[in-house]
Amino acid sequence: MANRALRVLVVGCGNMGAAHALAYLALSEFTLCGLVARGDSKNRLQRQLGADLPLFDDMQEAIKQTQADAVCIATWPDTHEVLALTALAAGCHVFIEKPIATTVSGAKRVVAMAQLAGKKLVVGYILRHHPVWQQFIELAHTLGKPLVMRMNLNQQSAGAAWHTHKMMMQSLSPIVDCGVHYLDVMCQMTRTSPLSVSAIGVRLSDEIPEKQFNYGQLQVRFADGSVGWYEAGWGPMMSQTAFFIKDVIGPEGSASIVARQAGGEGQSANVEAHTRTESLRLHHSRLNADGEFAQMDEWISAASEPDHFELCRQEQLFFARAILDDNDLTQHQQQAIESLAVVLAADLAAREQRMVNIKEVS
Q: One Pfam family for this entry, by name (predicted)?
């Protein structure tokens, strides 16, 4: 395998499947050997890629016919667990879009199967590959403890975007789907374990399942006394005001992502805007003898930050190196499970209107 490109199948040909397919075409470490989807999306993606690729309705058959080394799973969240288990059992390495599964026990089953099969399992936490988000987390480590972390991602959606959100809410609420990214960031900032979570949620549309909610907010408490807040809402009714808040506060000051354009009017449903940073603002809390701020705020420009395509390329390069260099992914997988446990506990807290100990869903 080391002497040839890895043969990879893309399973699920929507937005993220297309993004990863483009990344595979740009990397010499991979050969894109087929597209898998039940509907017409695979035909549309083939035309978009301008490549004559084998098309399949069934992943198992695709693996058999193409002799794939790896699969990229970018389907609806409620299919992730079964597809991942099937691909691993067939001898494939797996890149899977978050979340690994819709339950913590399901996520643990997938991780255990990867270990049993001796195959690599990488979870698509795209922010981990963004240099400015990495810097944002490092700045948090300079602010002392405890930390207060405030983050949201509300998306005003209509048309195709609202259709996608409604489909996603067949299996997950917004605070679960998007929340795993930002809870992962919070866990990296505190470098400690989340203990408990409270949450609220509300159903704002008759177009979504009765027991589902399309707006939610969670509050999480960590073992070191740090606290975090995350808010997410989807739909045509959502406000564009203050949809993009990403900051962390500690005794020594605060650090914030300030995305004036990506956080501006009409950007909340733009996938490209969700990873944009544009600039970081570092505030120092120390006062001088006169009781005034001893130091001006520092602005750190992110003018050359990677776009969404480059981030997907970096994710897939990480996947390739994990396979080719036999990198240990134990911590990567455990952290994916931990962040999922928090947002699933938050989902339970919102439904049952109570505080939930993280261990209840673990």
A: GFO_IDH_MocA_C3
Tokens of 244: 């993009």
**In the beta sheet, which residues pair with residue 293?**
287
**What 3-state DSSP class applies to 296?**
coil
Helix runs in the chain, H state only: 15-25, 41-49, 59-66, 80-89, 104-117, 131-140, 159-168, 174-177, 179-190, 308-324, 330-352
pLDDT single digits (tens) 30-75: 999 999 999 999 999 999 999 899 999 999 999 999 999 999 999 9
Domain positions in the chain: 6-124, 128-306+340-361
Could you tell me which of 20, 111, 27, 113 has the C-alpha nearest to residue 73? 20
Are the C-beta atoms of 183 and 151 separated by less than 8 Å? no
Give the position of tokens 């001893």. Answer: 294
Query: How many residues in total does the chain contain?
Result: 362
Q: DSSP assignment of 177-239, as one string?
A: HTHHHHHHHHHHHHTS-EEEEEEEEE---TTS-TT--SEEEEEEEETTS-EEEEEEEEETT--
Please identify, in words, the CATH class of the domain defined by 128-306+340-361. Answer: alpha beta
CA–CA distance from 277 to each of 231, 261, 274, 280, 306 (Å)? 18, 9, 9, 7, 10
pTM of this structure: 0.89
241 pLDDT band, cuts 50/70/90, is confident
Dump pLDDT digits (tens) for 295-334: 999 999 877 789 999 999 999 999 999 999 999 999 999 9
Q: Which two tokens stand for residue 269?
A: 């449903």
Query: What one-letter code names the amino acid at 181?
Result: H
Q: Which residue's entry shows tokens 């993220």? A: 16
